[in-house]
Amino acid sequence: MSQANMTMGAHHAAAVEPSPFAIPSKKLAIWLFIVADAMTFAACLLAYGYLRNATANWPTPFEGITNVAIMTFILVTSSLTMILGIRAAKMGDKAAAFRWIMITALLGIAFAALHLREWSNLIGEGVTLFKNPWGTALFGASFYCVTGLHLLHVTGGVIALIVVGLRYQGGRYNADDVEVTGLYWHFVDLVWMFVVPLVYLLNLNLGK
Amino acid sequence: MAQGNDYSSEGTGKYLITYFIILAIAALQFVLAYSGGDMTRKFTHMLILAFIEAIVGVLFFMHIWSENRTMKFFLMLVVFFVLATMQYGWPDSFRIHNGAPFSSYH
Q1: Torsion angles phi and psi, residue A194, rounded to 5
Q2: A165 contacts A89 by C-beta, under 8 angstroms
Q3: Distance, in angstroms, between B104 CA and closest chain A CA?
Q4: What pLDDT band is residue B50 in, cutting at 50, 70 and 90?
């Protein structure tokens, strides 16, 4: 290598900041995304709460909590399997990491399937975006928007988990990539903790 | 290059405890849903429980607890600015809800 090239290489290395503020760049990026996305959900849930509070004939269509309880259990459990996957990846145990990531993805698919089944039941009962048999039409629009936004995140997360899992196993991605995907997955799980009480538990039909 | 914390040295016990705490709080939310009483009080309690769940999750599943101080400070700063920006929307919602008149500006 010539002297000129070596000098240029050294300048280039000095110009690249690998770890701004001593924070790994990928982790910083996903955290910024999470904060921004949390505010998107906060705005949606706030709007939902406002509509629910300000509308007199808000429907309370949910007869039981079995489905939503199972969905919650699945999502919280998927957070545990994800963290076990991250831990295995950090320890360099590729087979275990891949296995845990794929279990997490399967749990995500199960969650999405239950969610779609619930949507299907509600649509069967006549709840659409613009009308429902019980009360204000705003119920359907706000319910499908909030839960749909969350379902979109779960679907995106499942795709990301499968892609990252396969590429990690193939050696194209490393443990940091698994960790970053895990941060997103935990976020999706935590958002559900706010969706459940607001959208489901406060709309239970308690036989009034 | 520093690539964050090494979680591999940590046992799975901490994660299992976090998992069961989050499940227990979620179960409490479901129990609250069936309790009688004022809807506003119920809503407030559920929201407090959701925030506790989120804090536990962020601290121990998302590892903020063991992140470096710069990272924590940076995130707090960003969250503060986004919340401050959201102040634009909240007072307006309450103004409409309480039936306050619109601005006289035309």
Answers
A1: -95, -30
A2: no
A3: 24
A4: very high
What pTM was computed for the model? 0.85
Runs of H (alpha helix) within chain B = 13-34, 39-56, 69-86, 90-97
CB A97 within 8 A of CB A88: yes
| Distance between CA atoms of residues A192 and A112, nearest Å | 12
At B4-33, the pLDDT tens digits run 455 656 678 889 999 999 999 999 999 998
ipTM for the complex shown: 0.84
* Residues recorded for chain A: 208
User: Which of B8, B46, B79 comes nearest A90 by C-beta?
Assistant: B8
Residue of chain B nearest A89, judged by CA positions: B8
Cα separation, A74 vs A79, whole angstroms: 9
Q: Is A93 on the interface with B (CB under 8 A)?
A: no
Cβ contact (<8 Å) for B33 and A190? no
Domain boundaries, chain B: 12-66, 68-106
Are B7 and A193 within 8 A, CB to CB?
A: no
**Among the listed residues A12, A101, A84, A128, the one whose alpha carbon sits nearest the alpha carbon of residue B12:** A84
- Classified as helix, coil or strand, B42 is helix
